[in-house]
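Record minuted for everyone:
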Amino acid sequence: MPVKEVGVELGWGPARLSGTWAPDNAERDAAWELYVELVTRIAVAPMQPGEGILREALRSLYQLFGVTRDILRRYGPTVAKPPRREGDYRFGYLAVWLLNGAVRPVLARWHPELQRWEDSRPPDVSVVDHETSWEHSASLRNELERLRHLLLQYADLLAAVCDAPALIDATRGLLATESSAREPDARPRTTSH
């Protein structure tokens, strides 16, 4: 039986959403597509110091724009209908909010700064070594970690909407298994009204 309604609790500080989402079938299908995209990206995996490449993390985040646009175009205005009442959300609004309210500010700030640093790399220094020596490397990693937690909240919301099992262990950003799966009450609340 499809989920009738889920609670929406996303974001931090002033960039916070709180309300409900009663998805229709098109929204559930769109949610599944975006869920698969989110949980298979570098952006939801934790980046330990000395691991990964910051440019790849930013590129993965940037690609979410194209993927989300494709999903929104494919499902059309059906997934972006106005809410039924105040505090209700729809897939289209939530998708655009995530991109413009959370992902875009990170990319707008860090992409040009990282690009300037990358442009100064001497030919005899590896990409990883040059990136590690960047004075803002830790700050960007912290910002990516903060955004990763929001993306995991969003992935949990999408999973709840399409009644999918958690494919990511939000505490570690790894594939969820029976031993590492979250308790059921850690997922967004669902109701059947």
Summary: The chain has one domain: 5-191. DSSP finds five helices and five strands in the chain.
